[in-house]
Design a protein that fits this description.
This protein is α+β, with helices and mostly antiparallel strands. It has a single domain, classed as Hotdog Thioesterase (Thiol Ester Dehydrase, Chain A), CATH 3.10.129.10. About 20% of the residues lie in helices and about 30% in strands. Strands 1-3-4-5-2 form a five-stranded antiparallel beta sheet. The longest helix is centred in the first third of the chain and has 16 residues. The mean pLDDT is about 90.
Length: about 160
């Protein structure tokens, strides 16, 4: 059993200052449900876009070095709704870096309102064997540059 903190309960996940990397997207008409809200898949897609933009330097076929990172796990906490055509600010930080993986935290914001927090585990894989591999130093350096040290947790449940 892991003693890893539950970042989704940490109130800092809902603050813009937590995230050193930002990407902007927007709610598309096709992202909405019958009530006009962005659906759950849209929120996951916004998170994916934020992660991909952070890692894009390693993703292209011509990238040197080309490093494949795959999503192994994702947890999402929905805090509010977004409607078409809202602009969504996607904040991303790195919480943990290990030998073969990293964990990222993300916050989605519609204006100043945090509408979603998410945590993702990503694993570095060998392009040929598709098996986990050691994290190359250029990726480790990029991730370290976007690290947020949570330290002592500020749990949302404690404030409720």
């Amino acid at each position: 059993m892991s003693s890893k903190p539950d970042y989704l309960d940490d109130l800092r996940m809902r603050e813009r200052a937590t995230y050193p990397f930002w990407f902007q997207d927007h709610v598309r008409w096709s992202d909405t449900d019958m009530m006009g809200h962005a659906n759950n898949l849209a929120f996951a897609g916004f998170c994916e876009s934020g992660r991909a933009r952070l890692l894009q330097v390693f993703m292209h076929q011509e990238a040197q070095p080309r490093i494949l990172v795959v999503l192994a796990e994702m947890r999402i906490r929905y805090l509010g709704e977004a409607k078409w055509p809202a602009v969504i600010d996607i904040g991303t930080c790195v919480t943990t870096i290990s030998q073969r993986a990293c964990w990222m935290a993300q916050g989605l914001f519609d204006g100043e309102r945090c509408i979603c927090v998410a945590e993702s585990a990503l694993v570095v894989v060998d392009e040929t064997t598709h098996r986990p591999r050691e994290m190359p130093e250029p990726l480790r350096e990029l991730l370290a540059g976007h690290h947020f040290e949570f330290g002592e947790s500020q749990l949302a449940r404690a404030a409720a």
